[in-house]
């Protein structure tokens, strides 16, 4: 096993989602994600008129081990609405118990709320 990192960069790539519930009158949705790692955040672009969005967006978070618990990666998925508040599809959480150099995790993570679609973050 490789030793845990004390400082470095955490690369997070939001790949896709599938089987999101319809949120618009046309039976589709305009999904986007808000990704959080501790106090650091980024937001994907909105993919229009789909229930199976593909983002393939990567973001780099800074990481510094302060001897406490490593924050989880939290992904909230929404439907963009022009005339009202955005609809909330749900949240996926990826536990990062300790960061290790050069490890790639490619998996689907369920969203909790509204039918539990899955979300792909490698």
Question: Strands, helices and their partners?
Answer:
Blueprint: E1 7-18, E2 31-37, E3 40-43, E4 54-64, E5 73-79, E6 87-94, E7 107-110, E8 118-121
Antiparallel strand pairs: 1-4, 1-8, 2-3, 2-5, 5-6, 7-8
Model description:
The relative contact order is 0.30. The protein contains no helices and 8 strands. It has strands spanning 7-18, 31-37, 40-43, 54-64, 73-79, 87-94, 107-110, 118-121. The mean pLDDT is 85. Helices cover 0% and strands 47% of the residues.
- Major sheet: 4 strands, antiparallel
Biggest sheet: strands side by side, in what order? Answer: 4-1-8-7
Task: Give me the count of strands.
Answer: 8
H/E series: EEEEEEEE
Class per helix and strand makeup: mainly beta
Instruction: Please report the distance between the alpha carbons of the first and last residues.
Output: 20 Å
Number of helices: 0
Q: What is the global morphology? A: elongated
Low-confidence stretches: none
Oligomer designation:
single chain
What is the typical, i.e. mean, pLDDT? 85
Helical proportion, percent range: under 10%
Strand content: over 45%
Radius of gyration from the CA trace? 15 Å
């Amino acid at each position: 096993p490789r030793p845990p990192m004390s400082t470095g960069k955490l690369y997070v790539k939001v790949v896709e989602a599938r089987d999101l519930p319809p949120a618009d009158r046309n039976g589709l949705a305009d999904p986007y994600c808000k990704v959080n790692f501790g106090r650091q955040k980024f937001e994907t672009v909105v993919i229009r008129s789909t229930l199976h969005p593909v983002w393939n967006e990567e973001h780099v978070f800074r990481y510094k081990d302060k001897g406490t618990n490593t924050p989880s990666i939290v992904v909230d998925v929404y439907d963009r609405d022009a005339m009202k508040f955005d609809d909330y599809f749900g949240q996926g959480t990826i536990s990062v118990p300790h960061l290790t150099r050069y490890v790639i995790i490619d998996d689907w993570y369920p969203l909790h709320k509204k039918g539990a679609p899955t979300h792909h973050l490698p």
